[in-house]
Specification:
The protein is 46% helix and 19% strand. The chain is of the alpha/beta class. It has one domain: Rossmann fold. The longest helix has 25 residues. It is globular. InterPro entries: Rossmann-like_a/b/a_fold, Universal_stress_UspA, UspA.
Length: 151
């Protein structure tokens, strides 16, 4: 059924739960999993303090590499064929969902798996919803894995 699973990771609890589900599906179907981390610094505009843009991007990139290394290690330990991609050039700033869908299309993924933070209210309005954007932009099956609901 599924042979190519694109797994979007961000190092969060919901991302770890999504990884667990991707492993279960991949083991059941013999699928390959490609873990993707999108480097995007657009959230910096919600910070009130001073920041160094280069340092910020370097920190996000390092966090992405760490998240991808952890995902690859778990996938390999589970015996799942896998690859990773750190996308340092998103399709458009602040449009992580479009970058995920573009990668899924380019790689010919059969399924997209990602965690969702369950944001509500003002936080959802300000920060947007990557998972909602992916659902709106793709015709591929999408598995959303939710952790705790944030206020």
């Amino acid at each position: 059924m599924y042979q190519r699973i694109l797994l979007a990771v961000d190092g969060s609890r919901s991302s770890d739960l999504a990884l667990s589900q991707a492993i279960i599906i991949a083991k059941a179907t013999g699928a390959e999993v490609k873990a993707l981390f999108v480097v995007d610094d657009s959230d910096v505009f919600f910070e009130a303090s001073y920041f160094n843009p280069k340092e910020l991007v370097d920190n996000i990139t390092a966090h992405g590499r760490k998240a991808l290394d952890a995902a690859s290690a778990r996938l390999s330990e589970a015996g799942v064929r896998n690859s990773v991609k750190l996308d340092e050039k998103p399709v458009a700033p602040g449009r992580i969902s479009l970058t995920i869908v573009t990668e899924a299309d380019a790689w010919n993924a059969d399924l997209i798996v990602l965690g969702t933070h369950g944001r509500r209210g003002v936080r959802r309005l300000l920060m947007g919803s990557v998972s909602e954007g992916v659902l709106a932009k793709t015709s591929k099956p999408v598995l959303l894995v939710r952790s705790e609901v944030e206020g």
